[in-house]
Amino acid sequence: MLLVVEQFLNGLQFGLLLFLLAAGLTLVFGIMDLVNLAHGSLYMMGAYFAATFAAWTGSFLLGALLALGATLVLGIVLEMSALRHLYGRDHLDHVLATFGLILFFNEAVRLVWGPAGLALPLPAWLTVPVPILPGIHYPAYRLAIIIVALLVALLLYVGVMRTRIGMLIRAGASNREMIGALGINIKLLYTLVFGLGAALAGLAGLMQAPILTVQIGMGENILILAFVIIVIGGIGSIRGAFLAAIFVGMIDTLGRAFLPNLLRQVLSGAAASTAAPALSSMLIYLLMAIVLVVRPEGLFPANRR
Amino acid sequence: MSKAVTALMLAGLVLLPLYSHLSGNIFILTLFTRIVILALAAASLNLIMGFGGMMSFGHAAYLGIGGYAVGMLAQEGVGSGFIQFPVALAASATYALVIGALSLRTRGVYFIMITLAFAQMAYYVASGLARYGGDDGLTVYKRSDFSGLIDLSNRTQFYYLCLACLFGVIFLIWRIVNSRFGLVVQGLRSNEQRMQAIGFPAKRYQLACFVISGTMCGLAGALLANNTDFVSPAVMYWTRSGDLMVMVILGGMGTLFGPVIGAVVYLLLEEFLSQITEYWALIMGPLLLLIVLFGRGGIMGLLGRVGRG
């Protein structure tokens, strides 16, 4: 029981983290029609910035806030210097150009921070276990991630659905020429959206950093999961990304936790222990294949054009 | 202009072992064996990407599948190339059939991401194969044995085998592209709806093309495992797929010899930059960005413009 609740919460936490990453990716795709592979690099930069700033200031929270601002600025600079010129080009061009950016970021990080990973230590008040149910404790930091990510998701929802800027964003997604003709500064809007996406990726990276080590290439594996999520959820749909992210996070975490034991009841011990790791890492992709067979446009396709 | 450069390059590839023997530079032969093998993989990707309009971002998976077929059979004591190579091709074709059937339900950017995700799945499966080295990879202790017909351990013979495979595949692609089948596939790239309206079963044609391409790349994988005497999940990593895409675009997508030129230039550039600085990717990355922004049509397109202007 204890293990089930704990793994369930772990799955939720991982799913919410994936949502932060997928939301930026799907926003940028939905509005600017840009495939940004370098989104994972922004996630990585968020983690590196946080580790550095936390070490400088000596405070985890201050470091995290500074890192958030730094990734926002980095995203805006990136959009204005390079990615802006890719709008309206072929998707293949996006893939190649942002692939080049990944190479650049990985190497730049190696140059600045060195090849070894960094650690981002947590302050003491975040390491204590918190009782969530009678007799069940859960690490405070993971709980904090869940709360922060849920808050961000709520803010994002309210921001996109209830504010003027959100209205402009949605309008830009459905018809960019028209909103430009109505006198809205599209360039500025795009830059802001990209910066927002970058900050979300950075937030995901800096929150994941204390759980895993901060290292080069950390953004790449998780980026592919984010791709799977937006494909399952339907590209351009934030609601789809949210539900698919929770779903994928749960399946991945629960699969890794319980599949080996389940297999052991069916197969012999040796066969189960060889098949389990491969099978549990395949699980998400199998899920994606099933979704594609049933709904090729994803579960919640955004109604565009 | 592009014809002259192509002819020059092909002549260079054929005469390379001669130069290597005369100058005693063995390294260049090893380097170019790798280049020729990856050119073969890039050419196979070009078939679906350039001619078929299917942007596969998971082509490196076939390199791994072909390689693992050779490595696993060698590990289990089956050393004959007459078994290893057909198995490598069949395994790649089967994988391509399954992945293609699923991925082709989608299009555009979905297709790019799906093929990427499936290749990543193959990567994780290979990492989980504890019996065959898992993460660390699998050493191929003995190269494929073609019972005296050709000796793969001989550098020159192996190089010419790879080159023959490359020329064979390019010839095959040329025949395919100019056949009725190839014209239908290219028609689908231009306008799928219209082709369907005339009555062509679009998906079936595309799937067939996808499988042919995957099988060709599986051959490259089998050769690559023999070349490095080693196969690991890393050959399937998604950056490898990215490399293959870059080679195709750099050389000129949808041209017959473009991917070969792309592979030669890209890998030589990588080699050259990595000799100047350890941080070669710092230059390579922005270079890719510039190529995308300003270099329409790749090297072949550039040469064509130079020829005309």
Q: Per CATH, which architecture of chain B?
A: Orthogonal Bundle
Largest sheet of chain B: 2 strands, antiparallel
Number of domains of chain B: 1
Low-pLDDT segments of chain A: none
Oligomeric state: heterodimer
Secondary-structure element string of chain A? HHHHEEHHHHHHH
CATH topology of chain B: ABC transporter involved in vitamin B12 uptake, BtuC
Give a short account of the largest sheet of chain A. 2 strands, antiparallel
| Number of domain modules of chain A | 1
Please give the share of residues in helix of chain B.
over 70%
Q: What's the gyration radius of chain B in Å?
A: 19 Å
Structural class of chain A: mainly alpha
Mean pLDDT of chain A: 87
Lateral strand order in the biggest sheet of chain B: 1-2
Q: How much of the residues of chain B is beta strand, in percent?
A: under 5%
Could you describe the 3D structure shown?
The complex is a heterodimer of chains A (305) and B (309). Chain A has one domain. In chain A, 75% of the residues lie in helices and 3% in strands. Chain A is built from 11 helices and 2 strands, in the order ααααββααααααα. Chain A has a two-stranded antiparallel sheet. Chain A starts with a helix and ends in an 11-residue tail after the last helix. Chain B has 13 helices and 2 strands, in the order αααααβααααβαααα. Chain B has a two-stranded antiparallel sheet with strand order 1-2. The N and C termini of chain B lie close together (10 Å). Chain B has one domain (2-308): Orthogonal Bundle (ABC transporter involved in vitamin B12 uptake, BtuC). Chain B is globular and about 55 Å long. Chain B has helices at 2-23, 26-51, 60-75, 81-103, 108-127, 155-177, 180-190, 192-198, 202-228, 238-251, 258-276, 281-294, 298-308; strands at 138-139, 230-231. The mean pLDDT of chain B is 90. The A-B interface holds A 29, 35, 82, 85-86, 89, 91-93, 95-97, 99-108, 110-111, 220-221, 224, 227-228, 230-231, 235, 274, 277-278, 281-282, 285, 288-289, 292-293, 296-298 and B 49, 55, 57, 102-103, 105-106, 108-110, 112-114, 116-118, 120-121, 124-125, 127-131, 238-239, 242, 245-246, 249, 279-282, 284-289, 291-293.
